[in-house]
Amino acid sequence: MKVAVLGATGFTGEKLVDILISHPKVEVTYLASRTPKPVLYSELFPGFSGKTKLKCEPLDIKKASSVSDMLFLSLPHTVSMEFVPYLLGKKKKIVDLSADYRLKDPKVYKKYYHKDHKDKINLKKAVYGLAELYEADIAKADLVANAGCYPTSVILGLYPLVKDNLIDGPVFVDSKSSITGAGRKAVIDYHYSNISDNIWAYKPFVHQHTPEILAVLGESTKKSLELSFTPHVVGVGAGIYSTIHFSLTKKVSYSDLKSTYKKYYKNSPFVRIKDTLPKLKEVTGSNFCDIGFAVSEDGKKAIVVSSIDNLIKGAAGSAVQNMNIMAGWDQTLGLL
Amino acid sequence: MKVAVLGATGFTGEKLVDILISHPKVEVTYLASRTPKPVLYSELFPGFSGKTKLKCEPLDIKKASSVSDMLFLSLPHTVSMEFVPYLLGKKKKIVDLSADYRLKDPKVYKKYYHKDHKDKINLKKAVYGLAELYEADIAKADLVANAGCYPTSVILGLYPLVKDNLIDGPVFVDSKSSITGAGRKAVIDYHYSNISDNIWAYKPFVHQHTPEILAVLGESTKKSLELSFTPHVVGVGAGIYSTIHFSLTKKVSYSDLKSTYKKYYKNSPFVRIKDTLPKLKEVTGSNFCDIGFAVSEDGKKAIVVSSIDNLIKGAAGSAVQNMNIMAGWDQTLGLL
Amino acid sequence: MKVAVLGATGFTGEKLVDILISHPKVEVTYLASRTPKPVLYSELFPGFSGKTKLKCEPLDIKKASSVSDMLFLSLPHTVSMEFVPYLLGKKKKIVDLSADYRLKDPKVYKKYYHKDHKDKINLKKAVYGLAELYEADIAKADLVANAGCYPTSVILGLYPLVKDNLIDGPVFVDSKSSITGAGRKAVIDYHYSNISDNIWAYKPFVHQHTPEILAVLGESTKKSLELSFTPHVVGVGAGIYSTIHFSLTKKVSYSDLKSTYKKYYKNSPFVRIKDTLPKLKEVTGSNFCDIGFAVSEDGKKAIVVSSIDNLIKGAAGSAVQNMNIMAGWDQTLGLL
Amino acid sequence: MKVAVLGATGFTGEKLVDILISHPKVEVTYLASRTPKPVLYSELFPGFSGKTKLKCEPLDIKKASSVSDMLFLSLPHTVSMEFVPYLLGKKKKIVDLSADYRLKDPKVYKKYYHKDHKDKINLKKAVYGLAELYEADIAKADLVANAGCYPTSVILGLYPLVKDNLIDGPVFVDSKSSITGAGRKAVIDYHYSNISDNIWAYKPFVHQHTPEILAVLGESTKKSLELSFTPHVVGVGAGIYSTIHFSLTKKVSYSDLKSTYKKYYKNSPFVRIKDTLPKLKEVTGSNFCDIGFAVSEDGKKAIVVSSIDNLIKGAAGSAVQNMNIMAGWDQTLGLL
Lengths: 336, 336, 336, 336
What we know:
The structure is a homotetramer.
Chain A: E1 2-6, H1 11-20, E2 27-33, E3 39-40, H2 41-44, E4 55-58, H3 61-66, E5 70-73, H4 80-89, E6 93-96, H5 106-113, H6 120-125, E7 127-129, H7 131-140, E8 143-146, H8 149-163, E9 167-177, H9 192-195, E10 199-201, H10 209-221, E11 227-234, E12 240-248, H11 254-264, E13 271-273, E14 289-295, E15 301-308, H12 312-326
C-alpha cells in the first residue's frame, strides 16, 4: 500500500515517517511540509540518513493524492478540513491526526478551536481513531480521526470505570506530559532552560481535550461523567502519565478492579494491565498503554494510572494501528 | 548562636550546612555523620571547598551538646528519639528533621514507621514545625518537629480550604517530587537511568505523610477532611509540585478563592499567592511556597497548586525558619 | 538460528534482548543472569511485557549450550573466559561482549583487568568484533571479541587518519559518555542527583580502553600512534561523543579529509560521513556511527567527531552486526 | 553604591539582578530591557516575587546615568559601545558584559562581530575583567570589559601553563557548555527536545572567543600560544567544563603541576586547585573556578580541567567580583 504523510516535519510527522519506513506492508511515496522546495528528508532530520532517501516537498494535494492510497494528515488543527473533502472524493483512505474530525458537534469544535467547521458532512462520517474502542468501525472507515494524546491516555484509563458505573461523583484526572505534545515550536516557553527540571499545570477545566474525552466516553458507554481534567507539562523527553483519582460507587477490591480492566481489554494487544503502578519509561518508545491501580484501605476510593508515549500510542503509533485495521492487517504490524 | 547539625551528609543535612554557614547570626560549631573518623566537610562535598573549613565527625552526642546551643537533627527516622531526651536535659534547643516527633499518636507512629516510640513525654511537648501555622508555639518551643516535605506543600495548600469549609467530599492530592526526597541512597531505583525522563506514582493512600497531613490539619482547623494522597517521583532535580483537586461546597469565584489565601497568609513572608499557576522552577533554590488556583466554569470545582523546593521549604530552609523564630529573630534571616 | 544471551539483565544484555527478539532470522532460546530462580524477563523489565514471554534463568552453561547455536556473552570482565573454552568445544559460535578476548597480549590484559588470562589459546584465535575493519575475519570466526564502546567510537574516527598518515604528533581524544557505559550498578556516584546536569573527566591516560584502541589501530594500520585518551561522564541518557583533536602532517582541505573517510567507509552501511558536525541525538537509538570534521583556517589542525549510541553501536547493535556477518546474512539485518 | 543593570532580562542580566539585590553594599536603582513599558521585575521573572519590588523599564540612558554610580551593561554585542562614551562622560563606572571592549584590535573585533568598532578611544582604556589576572588594573578602571564565559574557563586553566612555558606544540581545548551561554532566544535549536540528552561541537577553530583567549594570554604572559579551541553544547542546566589537552615541554610530575597552579592562584579566592578532577556540579551555583590535572605515566602529556558556572564566574558573578574590586571592597563580597 502506498502511503503519504502530509505534515512530515512536526514531532508527530517525524515519528510517523520513522514507523512507516520500517513497516513491512507499506511503501512511503510522498512526504510534504512547509518546506519551500523539495529537500531530502535526511537533510531535515539527519538521523534518517542511511535509512531513507525520501524527499519532503511543498504540499501539493493533487500530487499527494495521485501517488498514494492512504494519507496521514499530520497538519495543524483547522488545516486538515481543507484537504479531506478532496481526498475522500478521490476515494483515498485518511487518518487525520489533527483535531478536525474528532468532535462531532461543530459548536464545540468552534468553542475550542476558534474556527467554523467547514466540512460538516464528513465530520459526521468520521470514525474516532482509538482502536481499543472502535476497531470494527475503523475497519470500515475511509476517514479516521486519530485520537488526541491526552484523550488516548485518559479514555483508556476511564472506559472500564465508566462502563461499569464505578465512579461516584466527579473524576479528577491529573495528566503529566512531555512538552513534545505541544508541537515543534520556537517559543521561549519551550526553551531547554524552561522545561528541564520544571513542572507546571495549565488550562485546568478548559483544555480542548476535555470535550473530546467527554464526548467519546459518552458515546461509547452511554453513561455520563463529571470530569475535572488538569494537564501538566513535565520536563521529560516523552510520554503522558495520567493519574485518575475518584471515589468508588461501591466497595471494590484491587483484584475486582483489575479483572474489570482485563475483561474490557482482553483483545487489545497494546493495553497492558499491570500488577504494579506503571513507570513512564516502561512505555516510552512503544505503542503500549500501561494501566495500573490502587484501592484505598476502606475500599471507597481508587486511583487508576494510564501511561503512554505521547507521540506513539498518543499519535503516530495509534495512527499506524488504525491504518493496519483499515487495511485488514494485524493491528500490531510494524508496531512491536 | 552556636549550632550543630547531626546527620550532615544526607541531602537535607548538606542543604542545612549550606544555609547555616551563610547565616548572619549563627556559628556552625559541630557537624556529625556516619563517617568513621573526622574529615573535612569539603572533602566529602567538594563544592564546599573555599566556603567552610568545618570537619564532619562521628556522632558524639556529648560533644555535640557541649559545643552548641541549638541542634538540627537530620537523622533517619527512629534515630532522633534516641538523642532528644539527653539534649533537652541539657537545655538545648532542637529542630528535629526526622518524623519522630511529628505524629502525636504513638500508635500511628508505629503503624507507619514500624517501631515503638521511645520518648512519649517529649512527643507531647514537641511543636509541629510549620511556621505559617504554628509561629507562636514555635517561638516558645524547645523541641520543634520540622514538617515533612510533602506535608509542607500539601498542608499550606489545604489549610485555607479546610478552615473555610470549602471542600465538598474527598480531596484528591496529586504530588510530584524530585527523588532527592527519598534521601541519598545507593539503590538501583535511583540510578540516573531510572529517574531521568521517568514518572511514577507510589504508595497511594498509604504513604506515611498521609497521617501527618491529616493530623496537622485536624488539629489546626478543628475540621475533618477526607484525603486521598498520591505521591509521584518525577525526573526533576528538585522540588515538590502538589496539585490539589476537589469539589467546592459552594459557588466560589477565582478572586474569592484568592482572597481567602491572601487572608490566611498575609503574615507569611514565604508564601506567595500567585496570579497564575505556579511553575516548579520558580521556587527551586528558595524557601518560598508558591500557591495558585483555578476554578471551573460552573464554579463547582477547583484546583489549588502548591509548589516548594523539597529540600529547602520542605526541609532545611523551613528548619532554619523555625530556628529564627525560636531565637526571636526575623523569620526570613539567612533565607532570602 | 537459535541464540542465547548470557548476562541478560545488564544495560547491554537488555538491549541485546530487545534487538534479538525482533530480529527476522533468529529465535532467542535462552536468557541467563544472576537471578536466583527462573523468572519472566518481562517481570524484571516490565517494558518487555507484551513483547516476549521468555524467562531469565540462573546461568547453566550446559543448558545454554544445548539449546543454542550462537551465544552472546554479556558478562563481567574475567567471567567470559570461564565459559568460552567449553562453548567452543561444543562447536558453538560466540560473540563475547566483555573485554576478555579483546587484548591479544595477556600482560596488557592483566595490567588493566587485574587478573591472569586463563584462556590464552582462544585469545589468539579471537577476532576483534568491529565489522568496519574486520568483516572478512568475523565472517570466518567462531569467537568474536566485540569491540568496546569507547574503542568503537574512537577507532572508527581514527582509522582513516592513521592509515593515511595524517596525524602529526600526538592525538588528543576527548570522549563524552552516558553513565550507562559503566553498567547497571547501585552506587551513589550514579544516583540521579550526581549524574543529571553533571560532567566529569575520569581515568585520563590510564583508562582500560586505551590499550585496546592502540592495539587495534596498530594491527589494522601497521602504523604507530601517540594517543592521549580522556573519557568523560556526561548527564545524557545514551551515547558516546568523541572529539578527536590533532595536528595534520600536511595541509589538508575539508573536502580532502571527507574524501578520505568516504573511501575507507564506502562499504560500511552504519558509518555516516556527515556534511556537518554530528549531534549526539542523531545516532541515539540506532546502530549508526556519525563522523564529521573541521579543518583550521591554516589547514594545519583538524578535529574529527565520532558519535555513537554506546549501548547499540558501542555494544549490543555491533554484536548483532557481527552475528549477522558470522551467519552469512546482510550485516544490517534487524538493525535498521 | 547605586547600581543599574542595562539588559536585565537575559540569562546573565537575571543572574546579575539576583546577586546584586542580596549584595550587602549596593542598592539596585535601575533595571532596563526591551520591555515596551515599565513592569515589575517579578512579573517578568516570578521567582523574584517576594525578593524585590524593582521595576524593569525601557532603556533610557539618561535616566540610567542619573540614578546610578555603577552600571552593568548586559547588552548584546555591538550595542554596549553605543552607550559607553556617554556614561564615561558622566563619570560613571561601567562593567560591560558584552564583547565590545574585550578585543583591543578593532580589526579582530570586526572579523568576529561583523561591525566596525565605534568607540576606539575607550576601547584602549578598557581593562579586561578577569580579576585573577588584572586585579590591580581593575581597581583603577572606569570601564571593565568583563571576560567572556569560555575565556574565563580557558584562560584560568591555561595561564600558569603558558606563563611557565609548559606547553609543547599546540594546546587543544575541548570545552563543554550549557546552552544558556547562547542567551535566552526562542530558536528551535534550543528547544528542550534538541538540547536534552544531546551533545554537539560547533564553530571549531573559528569561535569568537578564540581571539579573546589568545589576546589576553599573549598580553598577560608575553608568551605565544598555538590554540585549537572547540566548544560544545551539552544538555546540562548550567556550566562550562573545559578539558585542556597538551604535550609538556619537559617531564613534569603531578605535584609539580599542582604547585605551579597554587603559586599563581594563591591570592585568588575563587580559584580552587583540586586534588581530583573536578565535577561540573561542584561549581554550578557558585563563583568558583575549579581546576584539576592529570599527567601521563611518562610525564610527557597532561590534561588540565577548568570548570565554572557559565552565568556566574563566566558572567554575572565575575562582573560583581570586578565591581567589588573597582569599589575597593573585598572581592568576595556578596559572592560566597
